[in-house]
Structures are given as structure tokens and as C-alpha cells.
User: What shape does this take?
Amino acid sequence: MFAVLPHARSPRWRRAKRPSSGRGRTVSGRGIFLIPLSEVDPERGEMTPVSCFAHAAMIVEVEVDDKTGEVAVIDMKSAYEVGRALNPKLVEQQLRGGAWMGMSHAAWETTEPYYPDPSHRPVDFLGYLMPGPGDLAPHHISMLERSAPDGPYGGKGPGEMCAKLVLPAVVNAIYDAVGVRIDELPVTPEKVLRGLRAQGGARPRKRL
Assistant: This one.
């Protein structure tokens, strides 16, 4: 157990961790955090239902083979506003793992083409299509800390946004590269090729 926050150096904290010190025991606890109710403007009804949102942005670099339709994600850059990162290394790993999960949803994972017929579905992860370590792109992460006044110890939840960002980022990167707009996931070579043939070949978008 390590004291990170100022109040965690109090005598109460020392008493709590004493039973586990050097004895191979684990101290555990349970708690809940509820955002305080917002005040309501009596004239306009204006209120703040949730003011603890986290924010993020991502840029993805892809290579698209206009002969085969194959797409390779070669680099990801992202910035996350996470409130206060109570455990910076743990938050970074959450963001990195979530982005890789989003990359898998964007370009690999699917129950097609037989869904909802269960007869051809994968029965385990040996038959389920998903990326391996060699398929994952480098991910450059910037964490922006701005303590949330109504978050627990100033923190915010980064658990979902790190995966959601990748899906539109990959689709938009493909559109910039060859001009094909994919509106159904996952992005497969077949879908890219259909788009290329429909528009008569690759049409890269103009760079800003």
C-alpha cells in the first residue's frame, strides 16, 4: 500500500494498512461515488445533469492497398483529458488497451456473414477473428490533466472513450486516403474494393 494523496498519510491510513504490512495479506474495500445533484434554474429549467465528462481526440495513419482493398493501421496519435489521473500508469494502460480493442472492432471482429444463424459462429477464441500482437499499431498518447470539481478526487472515467475513438478515426483515415466512405463495420478488404470500383479507383482527399 502506498500513500499518494495528502490525506492518505494520516494516522487512520497507517492503522488501516498495519494488519497487512509484511504478512502477505490484502486490504480491500468497497465504495460508491454519486455526482451531487445539480441546481435547477427556476425560470429556464437549466441544469447540469452530468458535468464530469472526459474528452479525447485521435489521429490514425493508414495504408490502403487499392489493388487488394487491404488496410493497415500504421500509427495512432491521441490526446485524452482525464481529469486527474489518480494512477497515471494504470490510466495509460487503460487507454492503450482500449484503443487496441477499438482497432479490433474497426477492422477485424464480426459475426458475419452468417449472423444470426449460429451454426457457423466461432465456438472459442481460436476461431474468432481478432488482431494479434503483430497487427497492433504504435500508439502515442498524451494525457491532459484538469481536475474535475465533481469527480472522485478530481478524476474522470477514461474507460469507454479510448475504444470508441478508433472506429471513426480509422474510417475517416481510409476516406482521406482513397475517397471511400465505409459506413458498416468492420472495414474489410471486400468493402474497400467495392467502394473503389464504384467510384472508378482511388480518389485521395486534398490535404489540409
